[in-house]
User: What shape does this take?
Amino acid sequence: MKKRFNPIKDKSSEIIEYLMSSPDIPDDEALRFKLRLSIEEAVENVVRYAYDGGIGWLEAEIRFDQDTLVLTIELRDAGVPFNPLERDEPDVTLSAEDRNIGGLGIFICKKMMDDIKYCYEEGNNVLIMTKKVG
Amino acid sequence: MDIKIEKQDNKTIVVLNGRVDTTNADQFQQDMEPLMEGENPDIEIDCTDMSYTSSQGLRIFLMLQKSVNARKGKMVLRNMNPQVKEVFDITGFSNIITIM
Assistant: This one.
């Protein structure tokens, strides 16, 4: 299933709930937790940073391959070109005083999903996250 | 999410119920701001019914910890469920915040 949200300012919650409503997500609490977290972090990155003032669109898609049992979440936007995977990973060994929250969202996605890919395609940022389920 | 705040002796008890996420992180931060100043820095957070946190919630726990450290106090998060604990573990927050 796929839906374009426009504009996306203050729409994070709606976009997250749309993806989480997919009948392809198994009724497994631990898995749903990991997916929700990855979706929230990825969607928030677009809603907060892709467009100046959040005025722009985001296309959210979730699909399931019955043969490979792989669930794919794809986010597409036409905002500022930005590859979140190129960001420096946060140093998780620092003290509280030296820690900040930058880069933590996409780091969490990487840990929770099996794979994340980014490409810039026809003027769009495309983020593809996959996880094998079942 | 539901937040209860209670003063007990020289410390503050916070009880969290529900998800800490993008929809309520700003409210959570506003509710916690008074705890980030004053003479009694000790905080105990009951996480029994906190079902979820994203980096939005972690940001606020980090702010609390920094403010507690600066005032030589102690903060403890109690009874965290295993999934929420995993988020604290993978981000290294378990090393800088006391979880019991």
